[in-house]
Amino acid sequence: MSTFTSLLTTHYAEFIHHYGDRITPDIHRAISAMRRCRTEQAGCSQWYCPHCHHDDRLPLGCGHRSCPQCQQRTASEWLARQEAKLLPAEYFMLTFTVPAPLRGLARYQPGAFYAVMFQVAASVLKDFAHRQHHGLSGFTMVLHTHNRRRDIHPHLHVVMPSGFYHPQRRQWHKGKKGFLYHHKALAKVWRARLLDTLAHHPTLRLPPAPLPTEWVVDCRNVGRGLPALQYLSRYLYRGVLPDKDIIKFNDHQVTFRYTDSQTQRPATRTLPVVQFLWLILQHVLPKGLQRVRDYGLLHGSTKTLRLTIQLMLLNLPTWQLPEQTKPQKAKRGCPCCQHAMCCVGSTRPR
């Protein structure tokens, strides 16, 4: 059992007493899944060794995307899929952030607010791409809901190639070297469109507090794109705070470490246990919300065109499209003979 899950189980009654009126159905489902994860309540998987005929039972994980014990395999599979989509061009990582007065919308109406963030940021990038080159481009968006201190701080990371495909000419253009879009122009349009969308939204309301006139959209070169994807994969499917960063805890307090964004040096934060649990659980996403979205040439519907572009730039005939690899069955080493065991089924409690 992970450290966070152990703390949640031990202090569950106290946590419900303090935060019960603020817990949404999505957080309730996440808590229930994490407390059940890898216990007898979750069931077990059945393993068989064809070499020595040894059989074994292992407790099942809950599979919830907020669980710190699950999703490690999901992260590696996502990274492999994204790596296969890489195009031969310079890549940029853009970060769309919102000012502090709007972060309350993410806390109390996360589903609607995050959907608006995706919608507006995608429209901004599509329009900038159309005005600049009138070709086909693409990008991948990833939603992060927290800063390094794990406070509510919603922002969108976007990984985007500078190149584009001209469909009429059937040509790939590498784009301008070292430049994608001007960050101040992006920030200005991002601010105007997001505020206009929120002003006309049926359920979201702009806060009465004055909003900053200048917003921030970061745009930086990340080479061929793989380092940015690797960075995102480390944070995508591991939960909000990995166990290795929880450095000290007792019945009253929890201390975790993080990297200070200003000094880039290690720092620590200490909170009462129930406050720490709420700090992490408030980042549970609404059910059905996709936190990773692909657009344009990186969308699944354009796979054939994307592969054609990749092979064309490698000077290979387009009929040599790689075959899809079938997912491999789960395997583990046999504790008796060290040969590979195969998962032959699972049992779940009634």
TrEMBL record:
Cited InterPro entries: Transposase_32 (IPR007069), Zn_Tnp (IPR026889)
Domain Transposase zinc-binding: 8-98
Pfam families: Y2_Tnp, Zn_Tnp_IS91
GO biological process, alphabetically ordered: DNA transposition
GO molecular function: DNA binding; transposase activity
Transposase IS801/IS1294 domain sequence ranges: 138-301
PANTHER family: ISSOD25 TRANSPOSASE TNPA_ISSOD25, TRANSPOSASE
Protein name: Transposase
